[in-house]
Amino acid sequence: MSHESLRIGVDLGGTKIEAVALDLAGDVLGRRRVATPAHDYDAILRAIAALVHELELETGRRGTVGIGTPGAVSTRTGLVKNSNTTGLNGKPLVEDLSKALQRSVRVENDANCFALSEAVDGAGAGVKTVFGVILGTGVGGGIVVDGKPIAGRNRVAGEWGHNPLPWMKPDEYPGRPCYCGHDGCVETFLSGPALAFDYKSRSGQDLDGAQIAALADRGDAVALETLAAYQERLARALAGVVNLLDPDVIVLGGGVSNIARIYDGLGKMVEQRAFTDALDTKILPNVHGDSGGVRGAAWLWGAGEATIS
Predict the structure, then answer these.
(1) Neighbour-count burial of 54, counting CB atoms closer than 10 A to its CB (0-12 exposed, 13-18 middle, 19+ buried)
(2) Residue 300: is its pLDDT beyond 90?
(3) Is the predicted pLDDT of residue 308 greater than 70, yes or no?
(4) Residues 195 and 255 in one domain
C-alpha cells in the first residue's frame, strides 16, 4: 500500500458513523457510512476500523485518522465525557482506536470539527478566527484560530449553548430546564426542538423547523412570529459571543441554519447588542452542510502531518 499522504475523517454520531478520505487538496477520494451500534462500544471500535480499512483499500493509500464525536476527552482521565452516544462515556476511545488502527488517532468534539472544516475551505476560509455554531438537536460551538481548533483547558471551549440566554426578558425568565442541570440555557431557546416547542406554545401544533419555515414563506402569522422571536434571541446570544471572542466570521450549521429567513437582518440585530459601534463580523451559512463534521475530522491532521510511517 502506498504511503502517499491521505487524511481520513470519521464522524461518530449517535445514529451513523461516516468516514471520508481526502487528499491534500481536500478532494474526496472515498466515502463510507454505516449505522452506529450505539450501545455496543466494542462494535463501534470494529465499525470504525472497518471503515478506515475499506477506504485505504479503495484509495491504495494509508492515512492519518481524525475522529469527530459529541462530547470530549477528559483532560483528567483520558476518557470520553459528555457524549450523547452514552456507550462512549467513560471509555478510553483514543487509546483503543490507536491500538485497533495501529497508529496515532486524534479525537475532537464534533462542533470543533465543523468549525475546522469551515475554517479550512468553507465559509470561514482565509480568516484568523472562526466561531462555528451548531443549531440542531442541541446547540454547540467550536472555535478555530489560525487554522487550529481551540479545545480549552477543560475541553469545553465554544460551549455557548450552556450559557444563559443574554438579556432575558420577563416572559422568558427563568427559562426552561436544561439537561445540564441549569435553567434558561441558550440551548433551551435556540435548538431545533426549542424552535418547535415555541411554535407549539403559540399554535398548539407539532411542527419541525422546516415545516415552520415553509409556513412562514407562505405568510403564516404564527410561523413568522415564531421565527422573528427565534432570530431576536439568536442575535442576543451571538452578541455575547462577539463580546467575548470577537471572531472574524461566525458560521451557522445544524438543521436550523438551513432556514434562510433567520439571516435577514441578523447582523444588524447583533450589532445593536454587541459592545461595538459597528459589527464587521460576518455571519454566514455553512458551505459543506452535513459533511462539515467528517471533513473537519480529517483536517485534525494539519499540513505536513499526513504522512504515515
Answers:
(1) middle
(2) yes
(3) no
(4) yes
User: 154 and 81, same structural domain?
Assistant: no
**What are the residues whose beta carbons fall under 8 Å from the beta carbon of 217, sequence distance 6 or more?**
261
Which CATH number goes with the domain that contains 224? 3.30.420.40
pLDDT at 4: 58
C-alpha cell at position 23? 487528499
Do 209 and 237 fall within a single domain?
yes
DSSP SS3 for 230: helix
Instruction: Specify the number of domains making up the chain.
Output: 2
> How many Cα neighbours within 13 Å face the side chain of 73?
14
**Global pTM value:** 0.92
Backbone angles phi, psi at 298, to 5 degrees: -65, -35
Task: Note the pLDDT of residue 307.
Answer: 46
- Tally the C-alpha atoms within 13 A of residue 134's C-alpha that lie toward its C-beta: 26
- Same domain, residue pair 137 and 75: no
The stretch 282-297 carries a mean pLDDT of 94
Per-residue model confidence (pLDDT) at position 39? 86
Q: What is the pLDDT of residues 260-279, one digit of tens each?
A: 999 999 999 999 999 999 99
Domain carrying residue 190: 123-286
User: Positive or negative, the Cα torsion across 20, 26, 27, 29?
Assistant: negative
Please give the pLDDT value at position 166: 97
DSSP per-residue codes, 109-149: EHHHHHHHHHHHHSTTTT-SEEEEEEESSSEEEEEEETTEE
End-to-end Cα, the chain, rounded Å: 12
% of the chain with per-residue pLDDT over 90: 85
Indicate the DSSP class of residue 214.
Answer: H
Q: Is the peptide bond before 174 cis (omega within 30 degrees of 0)?
A: yes
Torsion angle, alpha carbons of 32, 40, 91, 55, to 10: -20
202 shares its domain with 235? yes
